[in-house]
Amino acid sequence: MDRAALAAFLRVRREALQPADVGLPAGGARRRAPGLRREEVAALAAMSTDYYTRLEQQRGPQPSEQMLASLARALRLTSGERDYLFRVAGRNAPSFVSATRHVAPALLRVLDRLDDTPALILSNLGETLVQNRMAEALFGDRSRYTGLARSEIYRWFTDPSERLRYPESDRDRQSRAQVANLRAAYGSMGPRSRAGELVRALQKASAEFAELWERHEVAKRFSDHKTLIHPELGAIELDCQVLFTEDQSQALLVLTAPPGTESYDKLRLLGVPGHARFPADAQPR
What we know:
Blueprint (H helix, E strand, L loop, with lengths): L2 H13 L22 H7 L4 H8 L8 H10 L4 H10 L7 H4 L5 H8 L6 E5 L4 E4 L1 H7 L12 H7 L12 H19 L4 H12 L1 H7 L9 E8 L3 E11 L5 E7 L5 H9 L15
Antiparallel strand pairs: 1-2, 1-5, 3-4, 4-5
């Protein structure tokens, strides 16, 4: 572990960011130093200010891979910068599996500016990498899952509660779309990839999936109009727009409703601080 290089790199990257770059308000008080404050980086990385401060002062313990991944996301590092961070901290650069969970900085910059409508970033396997507060109010905390269940595709075919947010009349269409999206990921990643692992698990777990997989439908949705069922607010009609990274390994989903509609008013209710979240096992009214 190169403590001096790690400390210098963290400081330089922190000072290169402004609050607006990470979705934070600038605040009224004048900043004494350029860039983000240490406590702001610590909050973004979900660690204590003292822990982060010790890293910049060359006093901290060797960060875990999880801590380094959180710092890379907080500091909006590119994949090359992320790998450098890992190496100076005495860790191996992330494997392909771990690297795919590193959120593309370009998508994060867009997400940071979306605070009045649900938005989330997904991997090409349907794993929620990050979501804003509006998306959490609409869907619940989708980052809490582990293992294969991190994929919404896997949950769709193995967890009946996952389908409660869609009207029954739309569930067949959603099933086909989930499989078609996975087929696209499988084609680009190969049978020995995590996509292949997901396919094999679902073929054993779900007869519906196995039947749809044999249709060989391939698609990536760039836009969609859907109705979601919230347990308290009922049906919400939304337009879904998708922005992909260049390699199409990640996508930013933005959900909106036309102003003046009932669904628009329901989204505004979701934005009220403290509004009830969507529990995983909630039954819609």
